[in-house]
């Protein structure tokens, strides 16, 4: 289904819509965690649909960008692209837990061991809700800003758009 959408409308548009699905799902999860438990599963499903597109389509766009040759000098930039991509992804995976730990600390989260049970203050519960929903949604929205410069969808022939 995602490949068909990317073929008809472009990979960038598919990625943007996938990100919008994630954003909407995360906001719905924020609402669900406020006491609307019936909404948790549908919200998680919406996040999952968006997440799947946000994982698949960038890889297809990556292949297009790496094979694009604007200078006509037959330069192979796949190593540069994959290195920057991997470094950025690793940085995000490393900073995410640290960022969430800071949010929990600011919220007053109280850690415990397996032997004890601790009642979390309301501020810690808010920090958990925000850290799992609204703040990641804001980061997803922020990630769309650099994509405004992506123009390869319009340069590729329709048959090439689905490859990758």
Automatic annotation (TrEMBL):
InterPro entries: MFS_trans_sf. The keyword Transmembrane applies. It holds the Pfam family MFS_2. SUPFAM superfamilies: MFS general substrate transporter. Keywords: Membrane, Transmembrane, Transmembrane helix. The chain crosses the membrane at residues 12-33, 39-63, 84-106, 126-147. The keyword Protein transport does not apply. It comes from the Bacteria. This is MFS transporter. It comes from Branchiibius cervicis. The lineage of its organism: Bacteria, Bacillati, Actinomycetota, Actinomycetes, Micrococcales.
